[in-house]
Each structure stands twice: as C-alpha cells, then as structure tokens.
Q: What sequence folds into this?
C-alpha cells in the first residue's frame, strides 16, 4: 500500500519514541486515577457524599472510556492515530483543571467524565499501535506498555504523598498533577510517524472487522452503555430503567448483527463478559483499596496510600519483565493462576492482623492482579487480528464500562449495606433516623446518610455557609423534614452520647473494609474457574496458538 506507514517501516529509534510516548499517555491516566483514589475521602467528606456517590464519581472516570474507545476504534483508520491524541491531551489536561474548579458532586462527576473520555482515546490509539509495531510479540509488548498504568499510579501517589508532607494538602492542587505526564507525551508524539493497523495492512475489510463483534458483543456493550448514559445524562425512565436498558441494548445489538450478518465470535463475547469480574477484581478493588486495607495497616503505622504504591510497584516490575513469563505459559493459564492468587490475597487480607501476614497477603494480591488486563488484550490481539482496533479496544472498553456501571458502585453499595447492618444491631434508633434508601441496578438497599452526622456549626468547605444548609438545599419537603428530624435527634444527645455514637460509627466503618474484602473474593474466583476451562479447551485442541494475518487474509 503506497504512502502508508507500517510497523516495519519505522526505525528502531522511531519505535522507541512512539512506544514511550504511548507509555506516558497511559501513565497520565494512572496519575489521574491515583488522585481519585488518594483524595476521594477528602472530597467525599468535604461534600458529605455517601460511599455509593464516591463510587459513582470514581465510576464516572471509567464508563466514558468505553464511549471514546469504541467510537475512535471505528474512526482511527480514517483519521490516523496522531490527531486523536491531541484531543486526548485536551481532555486529560482539562480534567485536572475541572477537578481544581469543582465545588459540588456534579463538578467532581463531570471532571471524572472528562478524564475518562481522554483515557478512552488514549487506549483506542496505543493498543492497536503497539500491536502494529510489534506484530510478532503482541502479548509481551502490550503487557510492558500497560506497565504504564501502575507507573502512573506509583508516580501520582508519591507526588500526592510528597505534596501532603510538604504542607500542600489541598486536593484541588493535587488534581493538577496529571498535567505533568500529559504535557510530556503530547510533545513526544509531535515528531512521530504512526503506522496503520495490522488489519488495514492485511486488507481485511471494515465490515469483516465488524463481524468479529456481531450481535452478541454489540448487545452487551449497548446494554451497559445505555444504562450508564441514562443515569449520567438524565434520560433514564423513572421505573424499570435496568429492564428498559436491556431491551434497548438488544434492539441496537440486533440491528448491528443484521447489518453485519454476524452473530459474533462466541469466545470473544465470553472475553467481553469476563471483563466484568476482571475489572471488578483489579480496578474496582484498587479504587477502594485505602478503605479496604486501611484496617489491616492502621496498627502498623503505615499510610493507607502506601497500599497503592506497593501494589502498583509490584505490578510495574512484573509487567516490565513479562517477556520471560510469557515464553512459558499461555494467557488463559496465566489468567487462571492470577485469579487464584487474587482470591487468596484478598481473603487473607480480610483476616490478617499482624504486620508480616498483612504484607504477605497484600503481596499475593498484587501479584495476582498484575496480568489480568494486558493478558486479555494480548489474547484478543493474537486470536482476533481481523477485528483490528475494534476487537482489541472493545474488550478493554467492556471492562472499563462495566467498572463504571457495576464494579465500583457494587463495592460502594456493599460498604453501605455492611455499615447499615452493623449500626442496626448497635444503635437501632440512630439507624432508623439516619437510613437513606438507595437503588443499584434496580435493587433497593439501605444505607446510612452521612449528612445526618453533620454538626450544627460545621462549615468544612469554609465558604461561609453551614454545611447543614447546603445539604438540605434542593430537597423536597418530605426529605427536608426527615433530615431536620434527624438533626434534631443528634442535637438532643448529650456530649457523651454524641461522642460514643460517632465513635461507634467510625469503628463499624472501619470493620466494613474487612467484610467487603471477603465479598470481593468472588470475582477472582469466577476467573479461576472460567479461564481454567478455556485453558483446558485449547489444550484439547493442541495448545494455544496466536493467529497471524497476511495480505492474503484480506482477499
């Protein structure tokens, strides 16, 4: 193909510059994630958010990734890979500025959305570019590329911890740290030549690419996307939104399947489904890691933020040196082993009491989650090369989309339920006046409304307006009356009773972290079983083998 740049046309120097520019662009997303993990407690407390709301803000940085990742996968072959990266830079840098300016839940939510949109474009570009530049070594190079994610987590967390130590504790300033890697990668991309996708080079048609997705995966993506967009953009129906999202998703998927005349690849669809427990086991657990492991490391005198540094550091090292491991084990086998290690680590963390046990359990957990994402990307790139950028990015998008819709909120919901159940046993009167009913995926559950604990003279955001006034604004008459009655009850407690109640709440809030760790083990257990079956399937067929495209495949 005359005038088209392929991976083999690039010099070694050009490949390195392009690879490390891609590395930094994903690291920028990791820095943003580190900020949201480290400071979610700070902005959650300042704006008196429930754990579910904090989880929704975190989730808002993930589901938009699916929108731009899938959307740009359909466009990059026509636009080229460089121009989308300029837009990604604007969105990622803009997210830091929006976090700096946020003054309520909505501001935080849309800053996260902006970060997610930029992250999605980054993934839509760097994954197929890496596969195109290194067609003979996809899984290993994608694994090394995705070491950028833990590198961003480590770097971002250390920057935040360093800033806190130096006295710069304002979480808004920390949100601007994403600008450091963002500016660096966009300057590196400017001189780069970016190659075409492997599918384009082989002459596989656009429709043949779409057929890899087919009805099955298009339906799953549509259901999740419609559900979350309805919640985020306010066009959801008041009742039965989950059911309606399923119906709309099936209609969209059926129309797509009819157009491309394909059901889709069943094993690829299974990979998309498995990204739900993968995302929950890896990124959702990381999102809540400070709350989850805080009780275990508290008595060791260790900052809970160090948990992310340690976990990401282990992941970083193991991914960088992935080449040696990948030579001896197939992706399905490694994914099954990873699930087993994650489950053991999480359960052990829920029981560990002493320093050495906590350290070993957390090390096992960190090793377990290392290869989830890059191995599935590598598996997809090696087994479905005809799908080009679309299959590679769709499977990743399903994980990130399910993370925003299911993974992050479900752990937040479990926290809320555990605390509510514990407080119901310890102080039934308080629990009754503080209960707020929430809804998750069409299922109601009870939680403790943290606004009830706001004191009569509290002005945590120092804007001159008492937080009670701010939190009662915009409520309907019944909700405002219930909240006023709850505050009246709290104000009627003696000083000793008030201190005892708040101390009890803090204790149960801490204990909930251990119980949620046990709950979280179910997700890696699913991976152990299913990837084990996939490994045995390939073994029965003579072993796992990558599929390589040639120009004849497009004819």
A:
């Amino acid at each position: 193909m005359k005038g088209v740049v392929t991976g083999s046309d690039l010099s070694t120097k050009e490949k390195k510059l392009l690879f490390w520019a891609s590395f930094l662009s994903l690291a920028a997303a990791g820095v943003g994630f580190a900020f949201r993990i480290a400071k979610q407690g700070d902005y959650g407390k300042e704006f008196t958010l429930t754990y579910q709301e904090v989880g929704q803000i975190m989730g808002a940085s993930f589901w938009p990734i699916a929108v731009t990742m899938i959307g740009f996968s359909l466009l990059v072959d026509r636009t080229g890979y460089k121009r989308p990266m300029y837009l990604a830079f604007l969105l990622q840098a803009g997210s830091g500025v929006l976090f700096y300016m946020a003054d309520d839940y909505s501001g935080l939510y849309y800053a996260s959305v902006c970060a997610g949109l930029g992250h999605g474009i980054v993934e839509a570009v760097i994954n197929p570019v890496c596969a195109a530049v290194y067609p003979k070594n996809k899984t290993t190079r994608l694994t090394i590329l995705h070491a950028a994610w833990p590198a961003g987590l480590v770097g971002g967390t250390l920057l935040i911890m360093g800033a806190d130590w130096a006295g710069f504790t304002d979480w808004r300033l920390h949100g601007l740290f994403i600008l450091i890697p963002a500016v660096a990668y966009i300057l590196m991309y400017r001189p780069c030549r970016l190659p075409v996708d492997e599918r384009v080079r082989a002459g596989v048609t656009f429709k043949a690419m779409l057929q890899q997705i087919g009805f099955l995966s298009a339906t799953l993506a549509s259901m999740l996307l419609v559900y979350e967009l309805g919640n985020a953009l306010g066009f959801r129906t008041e009742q039965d939104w989950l059911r309606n999202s399923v119906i709309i998703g099936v209609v969209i998927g059926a129309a797509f399947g009819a157009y491309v005349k394909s059901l889709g690849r069943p094993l690829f669809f299974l990979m998309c489904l498995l990204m739900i427990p993968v995302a929950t086991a890896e990124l959702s657990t990381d999102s809540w890691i400070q709350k989850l492991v805080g009780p275990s490391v508290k008595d060791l005198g260790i900052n809970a933020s160090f948990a992310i540094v340690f976990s990401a550091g282990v992941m970083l090292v193991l991914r960088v040196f992935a080449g040696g491991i990948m030579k001896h084990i197939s992706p399905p086998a490694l994914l099954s082993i990873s699930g087993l290690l994650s489950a053991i680590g999480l359960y052990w963390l829920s029981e560990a009491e002493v320093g050495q046990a906590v350290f070993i359990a957390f090390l096992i957990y960190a090793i377990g989650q290392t290869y989830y994402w890059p191995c599935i990307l590598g598996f997809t790139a090696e087994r479905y090369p005809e799908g080009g950028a679309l299959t590679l990015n769709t499977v990743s998008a399903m994980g990130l989309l399910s993370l925003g819709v299911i993974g992050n909120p479900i752990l937040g919901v479990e926290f809320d339920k555990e605390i509510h159940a514990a407080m119901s046993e310890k102080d039934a009167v308080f629990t009754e006046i503080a209960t707020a009913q929430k809804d998750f995926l069409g299922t109601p559950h009870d939680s403790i409304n943290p606004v009830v604990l706001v004191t009569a003279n509290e002005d945590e955001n120092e804007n001159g307006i008492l937080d009670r006034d701010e939190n009662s604004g915009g409520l309907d008459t019944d909700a405002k009356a219930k909240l006023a009655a709850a505050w009246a009850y709290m104000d009627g407690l003696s000083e000793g009773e008030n201190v005892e109640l708040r101390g009890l709440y803090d204790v149960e809030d801490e204990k909930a972290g251990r119980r949620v760790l046990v709950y979280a083990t179910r997700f890696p257990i699913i991976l152990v079983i299913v990837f084990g079956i996939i490994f045995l399937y390939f073994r029965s067929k003579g072993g796992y083998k990558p599929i390589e495209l040639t120009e004849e495949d497009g004819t």
